[in-house]
Design brief:
Distance between the termini: 48 Å
Shape: elongated
Strand content: 15-25%
Largest sheet: 8 strands, parallel
Structural class: alpha/beta
Helix content: 40-55%
Radius of gyration: 28 Å
C-alpha cells in the first residue's frame, strides 16, 4: 500500500507539472498572438515606431503619430483617440472623440463607437467604416470586447483550456456525488458493469423519447396546447439533465477503476477513482472539440456516454435498487 501511495503522489505531481507547463505555454502563446496590451493615462506611438501583432490600448489620450505603423489589428479605448499613422489590419475605436487624420492609412475595416467622429478628407480606409454607436449618445465597449472575444474563442489554446477546465470540473463533481451518494452510485456502476449495452439502449431510447415529445409539443403550440404547459416541459428536461449528471458520476467510477488498474494503483478510495474517471471521461468527450473538423466525434462520444449513464439511472431506479439482468432460458 505505501508503494501504491507513493506512485500515486508521483503521478499527481506529474499531472500538475504538465498542467502548469500547458498554462505557461498558453499564456506565452496568447501574449504573442495579442502582441501587446497597454493601460496608461496617455499613449503615443511616435513617428518611426512599429508594433507587430494585435494591440489593445486603454488610455485617456491615445495618439498614433504620422509615420507610425501597426502590423495587425488594434483596439483603442479612451477619451481622445487620434490616428495619423498606418495600420495594416482592422481598427476598433471606442472613444468620446475620435480624429482620423489626413495621414491615416488603414488597410482593413474601421469600427467606430464615438460621440464625435472627425475624419480628414485625405484619410484612407481600405475596408468599410461602421459607426456602431451612431444612434446612441452613450459609448459602450461591449462591441469591442465582443470582437476580441470572438477572435480569442476560436484559438487552439482557448479550446484546450476549456477542455481541461471542464475535465477538472466533472472530476470534482463526480468525486463529490460519490461522497454524497455512495450506495446509489455503486448500484448504478454495478449495472453498467453487468449490462452496458442494455444501459446504453435504455438511455438512448429515453433521450429520443424526450426529443420526440419536445418536438411534438413545439408543433402543438401553433395549434391547440397553451403555453401554460411549457414549465412542465422545462421541468422534464431539467429532471432529465440531473439524472444524466448522476449517471455520468456512476460511469466515472468504473472508468476510474480501469484507469488506475492500468497504472498499477488498485483499491483506491471511491472518491479518488470517481474523480479520475470523471476527468478521463470529460477529456475523452471534450478534447475533440478543440478542432472544428473533429467536433462531431465529441458529439458521438458524449451522446454514447450520456446514454449509458442515463440508462444505468433508469435501470436501478436512480440507484434505489440493484439491477440484475435476466438470464436467457436454456434447453434442459
Amino acid at each position: 500500500m505505501p508503494a501504491n501511495i507513493s506512485r500515486l503522489r508521483k503521478g499527481l505531481w506529474f499531472v500538475a507539472l504538465i498542467g502548469l507547463a500547458l498554462l505557461l505555454s498558453a499564456c506565452q502563446s496568447t501574449a504573442k498572438d495579442l502582441g501587446g496590451f497597454s493601460l496608461n493615462s496617455a499613449y503615443t506611438l511616435a513617428a518611426g515606431e512599429t508594433r507587430s501583432g494585435d494591440q489593445v490600448v486603454v488610455a485617456q489620450d491615445i495618439t498614433l503619430a504620422p509615420g507610425s505603423s501597426i502590423a495587425g489589428d488594434i483596439t483603442l479605448m479612451g477619451s481622445q483617440v487620434t490616428i495619423r499613422g498606418q495600420v495594416n489590419g482592422e481598427v476598433i475605436v471606442v472613444a468620446d472623440r475620435f480624429v482620423l487624420g489626413d495621414e491615416a492609412n488603414i488597410s482593413g475595416d474601421l469600427v467606430v463607437c464615438a460621440k464625435e467622429f472627425q475624419r480628414g478628407a485625405a484619410a484612407r480606409v481600405g475596408g468599410t467604416i461602421r459607426e456602431e454607436c451612431a444612434r446612441s449618445s452613450r459609448v459602450s465597449i461591449a462591441k469591442a470586447i465582443d470582437s476580441g472575444w470572438s477572435d480569442w474563442r476560436s484559438s487552439f489554446w482557448f479550446g484546450l483550456g476549456t477542455a481541461l477546465a471542464g475535465a477538472l470540473f466533472f472530476g470534482a463533481l463526480s468525486a463529490l456525488l460519490t461522497a454524497v451518494f455512495p450506495r446509489p452510485l455503486g448500484r448504478m456502476a454495478a449495472s453498467i458493469y453487468r449490462a452496458p449495452a442494455v444501459a446504453g439502449g435504455v438511455g438512448c431510447l429515453t433521450i429520443l423519447l424526450a426529443l420526440g415529445v419536445s418536438a411534438v409539443y413545439g408543433l402543438s403550440l401553433l395549434l391547440v396546447l397553451p403555453v401554460v404547459l411549457l414549465p412542465l416541459v422545462l421541468l422534464g428536461w431539467l429532471t432529465l439533465g440531473l439524472l444524466s449528471i448522476l449517471g455520468w458520476a456512476a460511469l466515472a467510477q468504473p472508468t476510474g477503476v480501469y484507469v488506475l488498474q492500468r497504472l498499477g494503483l488498485e483499491r483506491q478510495p471511491p472518491m479518488l477513482t470517481a474523480g479520475v474517471g470523471g476527468i478521463v471521461l470529460a477529456l475523452l468527450w471534450r478534447v475533440w472539440g478543440i478542432f472544428w473538423f473533429t467536433a462531431w466525434i465529441g458529439l458521438i462520444i458524449g451522446a454514447a456516454l450520456a446514454s449509458v449513464g442515463l440508462g444505468a439511472v433508469i435501470l436501478t431506479r436512480a440507484g434505489s435498487r440493484p439491477y440484475t439482468p435476466r438470464e436467457s432460458p436454456t434447453a434442459g
